[in-house]
Automatic annotation (TrEMBL):
This is Phosphatidylglycerol lysyltransferase. It is an enzyme of class 2 (transferase). InterPro entries: L-PG_synthase/AglD (IPR022791). It catalyses: L-lysyl-tRNA(Lys) + a 1,2-diacyl-sn-glycero-3-phospho-(1'-sn-glycerol) = a 1,2-diacyl-sn-glycero-3-phospho-1'-(3'-O-L-lysyl)-sn-glycerol + tRNA(Lys). Catalyzes the transfer of a lysyl group from L-lysyl-tRNA(Lys) to membrane-bound phosphatidylglycerol (PG), which produces lysylphosphatidylglycerol (LPG), a major component of the bacterial membrane with a positive net charge. LPG synthesis contributes to bacterial virulence as it is involved in the resistance mechanism against cationic antimicrobial peptides (CAMP) produces by the host's immune system (defensins, cathelicidins) and by the competing microorganisms. The keyword Transmembrane applies. Belongs to the LPG synthase family. NCBIfam families: flippase-like domain (TIGR00374).
Length: 348
């Protein structure tokens, strides 16, 4: 019952945010002119942009495949691509991308991958994923002062808030991994405060569950200490993966035959949006991403700003959602059915 309520809540929340986003972005706009501009875009530039979205999903599957091999678990790359697709699909449709990794662990379990192993791998992916954003964000903040004031003057508070939240998240997860005793103290203290404020009801066994969850952090610390080369390679792959997604905006820019703004400028402007919205509790950063795009890219796209935003979000978010949704269906029809068939055979 609780699971059904959560699914219904997430579904309603997604629909409401989507409806408000559509209204906020398109209210009062000349939709016919926008559609004419979109139809005029050169599809030869859009095709590589869509390919980069697929590459983005594939990049995580390579990380999963690579790290599984370090555990001695041999999987086919197409199976890892299905794991990756499941993660991105549920991350796209749940607040703060909270549903992706639990569903990945669920499907990995169906392939007989132990929960402690999947927990470590998914945690490292999360840390490196956000670490790359932090490095980019700090790089822009420290070395791009002129860039900040030229393009980001109106959204600097949002950018700094997003950067601060990502730094906090990476720092907190690192503490959890390398200082489990300190982390336990913080989490127990936080749990008691939430119970005193009646945000959480007092429950016997909750502390025990909390302590059991710390095992995953201890396992992650042990893995990091003994697989430093693997981690360095994962960070490198993650950096390329994220840059590929940011580059989609440049291909949309060129599809309108626009020029005058360089590739790296467009790429880092898109990176700024990701840094700003990554930690916000909205599915896919919906609503705020569109607003930031219309603010930041106004001098870049000019009169083609709205159709540019529609194509960029169409490829970068909705394209990712569609591709990952299709392969999530494949995962359910293959991994899910394969597991159910084995269970029936065992029962018989």
């Amino acid at each position: 019952m609780k699971k059904n309520k959560k699914v219904i809540f997430n579904g309603v929340f997604l629909v409401v945010v989507f409806a408000l986003t559509i209204y906020g972005v398109f209210h009062g706009e000349d939709l016919e002119s926008m559609m004419d501009a979109i139809r005029s875009a050169d599809k030869r530039w859009l095709a590589p942009g869509l390919a980069l979205v697929a590459f983005f999903i594939w990049g995580e599957s390579i990380i999963i495949w690579y790290m599984m091999r370090s555990y001695g678990i041999k999987l086919k790359k197409r199976t890892c691509f299905l794991f990756s697709s499941v993660g991105f699909f549920f991350s796209c449709i749940t607040p703060s991308a909270s549903g992706g990794q639990p569903m990945q662990a669920y499907y990995m379990k169906k392939k007989n991958i132990p929960i402690p192993v999947s927990a470590v791998i998914l945690m490292i992916i999360t840390i490196t994923y956000k670490l790359v954003l932090v490095v980019i964000g700090i790089g822009v903040a420290v070395f791009g002062r002129g860039f900040l004031h030229q393009y980001l003057e109106g959204i600097l508070p949002v950018f700094y808030l997003g950067l601060a939240l990502n730094i906090f998240c990476v720092t907190f997860m690192t503490i959890l991994v390398f200082h489990p005793l300190l982390a336990r103290t913080f989490m127990v203290w936080g749990l008691k405060i939430l119970e005193k404020l009646h945000i959480l009801r007092r429950k016997d066994g909750r502390l025990k569950k909390l302590e059991d969850s710390m095992d995953a952090y201890r396992d992650t610390a042990a893995y990091l200490k003994t697989h430093s080369k693997v981690i360095a390679n994962v960070i490198g792959i993650t950096f390329v993966q994220r840059m590929a997604m940011f580059a989609v905006t440049w291909f949309v820019y060129r599809s309108f035959s626009l020029s005058g703004t360089g590739f790296w400028t467009v790429l880092f402007l898109q990176a700024v949006i990701s840094v700003s919205v990554d930690m916000l509790p909205l599915p896919g950063g919906m609503g705020i991403s569109e607003t930031l795009f219309l603010t930041i890219f106004a001098p870049v796209f000019g009169t083609l700003l709205l159709p540019g935003m529609v194509l960029c979000r169409g490829l970068g978010y909705y394209g990712e959602l569609l591709i990952s949704a299709l392969f999530t269906i494949v995962a359910q029809l293959t991994i899910g059915q394969e597991h159910d068939s084995k269970e029936r055979e065992s029962y018989e």
